[in-house]
Amino acid sequence: MGSHTLVSVQNLTKHFPIMRGIIFQRMVGAVKAVDNISFEIEAGETLGMVGESGCGKTTAGRTLLGLYPATSGKVYIDSHCVQDANNTEMKTIRRKAQMIFQDPYASLNPRWTVNSIISEPLHVHRMLANDKERNERVVELLELVGLNARHINRFPHEFSGGQRQRIGIARALASEPQFIVCDEPISALDVSIQAQVVNLLEDLQNKLGLTYLFVAHDLSMVRHICNRVIVMYLGTMAELGPRDELYENPLHPYTKALLSAVPIPDPHRDRARKRIILKGDVPSPINPPTGCRFHPRCPIAKSHCAEQVPVWRETTQGHWVACHEV
């Protein structure tokens, strides 16, 4: 764990406007994908972000890096503000912070060779003097992620899903970043390959001193790789805490429901525990519920849960929750 804060997110909000009309467009609403979230990531840490599909995890990761412009709020990466950065500062941020995308099939250009894909950041940031040095660096990066020099002139379609994700990781490492957003980097891969990619990410973190935001919906994998975990629900943060504390003593009813669905390898323990089945569907992010966003599905909701937004508060050291009933 690092001794200083590398990434600071302050009241980050991202709404996607809904427009009507062909010639005279007008805004008729917004998808509230991420709503007023704040957290910090220490240098050398892996912070997990979990929640069901559509809760705003990927949008938060992309807005964090400036791939989506924020509706409001600020993000500081190594004390550079993403929202206030000019072109020169943005280039510095792009070099310090990279992303590994979810789909290794869609995130690599099918017309480019592996060499072109991985050397692109080296060209953009003018990191090496000539093609010979760039080629040597590409081979170095391929070997770092478990591929070799034979692969350098091949195209993405010649590789398996796991190999493509390794190419994506090599591309992210090319600019020598400090911080990487891993956007569900294993969800599109076979189960047998997932552990290899997660182990690779851990090895790279130890070797290069990287800091990760690890977005995922596989809670057992998050427990394996992360130091702290954020639980997202409908664009807001429900709970944040140290990994073991959150898994062994979940406070928010939504966190409890999520953890009750994680399979346990012991069939006797699995049969003995109580599954928490949530009623209803996830509400629309276009028109989220008033008060606590989880109250329509919450097994312990009271009348005031529908009226007042719960206060984000610290219950024990580093363990935060947004719930009236905890």
Précis, in short:
With 326 residues, the chain is an alpha/beta fold. The protein contains 10 helices and 12 strands. Helices cover 31% and strands 25% of the residues.
**Estimated structural class:** alpha/beta
Q: Which strand order do you get reading across the main beta sheet?
A: 6-7-8-3-9-10-12-11
Please compute the radius of gyration using only Cα atoms: 21 Å
**Poorly predicted parts:** none
Question: What is the terminal separation in angstroms?
Answer: 29 Å
Shape, per Cα inertia axes: globular
Mean pLDDT: 91
Most strands sheet: 8 strands, mixed
The H-and-E topology, N to C, reads as EEEHEEHEHHHEHEHEEHHHEE
Question: What percentage of residues falls in helices of 4 or more residues?
Answer: 25-40%
Strand-residue proportion: 25-35%
- Number-wise, the strands total 12
How many separate helices? 10
SSE inventory with pairings:
Blueprint (H helix, E strand, L loop, with lengths): L4 E16 L5 E17 L3 E5 L6 H8 L7 E6 L2 E2 L5 H10 E4 L13 H11 L6 H14 L16 H13 L5 E5 L7 H18 L2 E5 L3 H7 L2 E6 L2 E7 H6 L4 H8 L6 H6 L39 E5 L2 E4 L4
Parallel strand pairs: 3-8, 3-9, 6-7, 7-8
Antiparallel strand pairs: 1-2, 1-4, 4-5, 9-10, 10-12, 11-12
Helix pairs in contact: 3-4, 3-5, 4-5
Q: Which features does this protein show?
A:
alpha/beta, 326 residues
Task: Give structural notes.
This protein is an alpha/beta fold. Helices cover 31% and strands 25% of the residues. The longest helix is centred in the middle third of the chain and has 18 residues. It is globular.
